[in-house]
Amino acid sequence: MTGHKSIIINGPSGVGKSTVSHILSRSVKKGVHIDVDILRHLVAEHRLTRGQIDLAYRNAAALTDNFLEAGYTVIVDGVFPTGKDLGIFCRALKTRNAAVYGYTLSGDVQVLQQREEMKTGSGKLRQHVRKLHNSMHADAGNLGVFVDTTDMGIMETVGHMRKLLARGIGRIKVSPSDSTSPARRKRKRK
Predict the structure, then answer these.
(1) Which of 70, 57, 86, 89 is nearest to 31 (CA)?
(2) How many CB atoms lie within 10 A of CB 119?
(3) 115: which of 34, 125, 127, 151 is 20 to 30 A away, CA to CA?
(4) Which domains, from first to last, does the chain contain?
């Protein structure tokens, strides 16, 4: 992987997107990992509004632009439940000469719920994980390439994603003037 790439790692809680993003960003010469959750939590309110979530997507795009301009490969780790959410991020990108790739990590919902419960020590997010999982699968055609991590360890997932990237699989066409989702735009042009 060389510079001027933005790689979006999407998925529900418990799928391993932060760990995968961290390892991917460390495996390239000039890599950076942007965690959209950190940007969302900059807002000091306990309950985030839709506008604040969209602001986090746009802030992630602004940071991505800055790092791309400086020649970095940018790994964006976030929860984009639908193609509309991913589209907010993509339309906010101003850098047009960079390749943008989209991957949604997924897996068996019960496995994801168990992973999240082990991570947080609580079962409170089980329904949230299921809701995100179902939302992403319902809009699968608009969220990039799906990677099932159920039977893969972290390093296997990273290796698989590196192979996909090396073959150019998962590239998203980004256009600021088109309001449809990135994946749908790509499909229409084939």
Answers:
(1) 70
(2) 13
(3) 34
(4) 5-185 (3.40.50.300)
